[in-house]
Design brief:
The protein is α+β, with helices and mostly antiparallel strands. It contains four helices and seven strands.
Length: about 260
């Protein structure tokens, strides 16, 4: 079962165990008061975790026989305490499984080993805290009423396909039926049909050529609204007749008569 699974968090090949004097005051432990050159025991240290509890196990290097273990349920806490004068020494509380416990000192020859020991315990109890928070959130979510997002009886949903309509309006125009391909009439023109081509008009013979005399007569009577009269044979006769009844003024001296 998952509850019986025990994981290994950290292993250090060498650790020293010291007998420590009883603490007479509330001040922290000091490693300088121990006999550091005379450890009581030396061996291997292993940190394991089972569920939420971590175990500091002191084992023989060769046989793996368990010398002592300290269960840790909270860190930092009373089960593991750092000394005040060094980062390589700690005080742990060991238990024998029969309700008896004792405090011993442990120390590492390498400062990196003590750092790994500290980080392994911190990471485990950080994970324990996160698991506890997730369990609380799941409990709150399970107790809260769930939203019913399903369709009720007779309920429908309407979908608007606006993009398709827009596409038809832009590029879906159809050619008008019956289109002849001709351009539409200009504004103001009566009727919507253009006159037929010149080939379909009723043929008429071109007007006869008018002699040059007739053209001259038309020029003379351009401003008359009535029908033009037949011009005389003499092109200059009208001008002579017009000037015959008038008296010409004498030419003044000093001017040349044209």
């Amino acid at each position: 079962m998952a509850e019986d699974y025990e994981s290994v968090l950290c292993v250090k090949p060498e650790v020293h165990v010291y007998r420590i004097p009883p603490r007479s005051t509330n001040r922290g432990y000091r490693a300088s008061e121990w006999k550091l050159d005379e450890p009581a025991w030396s061996g291997r240290m292993k940190i394991t975790a089972k569920n939420k509890t971590a175990f500091i196990k002191l084992e023989d290097k060769n046989t793996g026989e368990l010398f002592a273990q300290a269960p840790v349920e909270q860190y930092p806490g009373s089960a593991v305490e750092a000394v005040t004068d060094s980062s390589r020494y700690f005080v742990i509380r060991i238990e024998d499984g029969n309700g008896r416990h004792a405090f011993i000192g442990i120390g590492f020859a390498d400062r990196g080993d003590s750092f790994d020991f500290n980080v392994a315990l911190q990471d485990h109890f950080k994970w324990v805290k996160q698991e506890s928070e997730l369990a609380k959130q799941e409990a709150n979510q399970s107790s809260a009423p769930k939203l019913d997002l399903g369709f009720k009886e007779g309920q429908t949903i309407k979908i608007s396909l606006g993009n398709i309509k827009k596409k038809d309006a832009v590029g879906g125009g159809k050619t008008r039926p019956g289109g002849s391909g001709l351009l539409p009439p200009p504004p103001g023109a009566k009727g919507g049909v253009l006159p037929p081509p010149s080939s379909q008009l009723t043929p008429h013979s071109p007007p006869a050529a008018v002699p040059s005399q007739t053209n001259a007569g038309l020029l003379l009577d351009f401003g008359s609204p009535s029908a033009p009269t037949q011009p005389s044979q003499d092109l200059w006769g009208d001008f002579t007749a017009a000037g015959s009844g008038t008296t010409q003024e004498p030419v003044k001296s000093g001017w040349v008569q044209f």
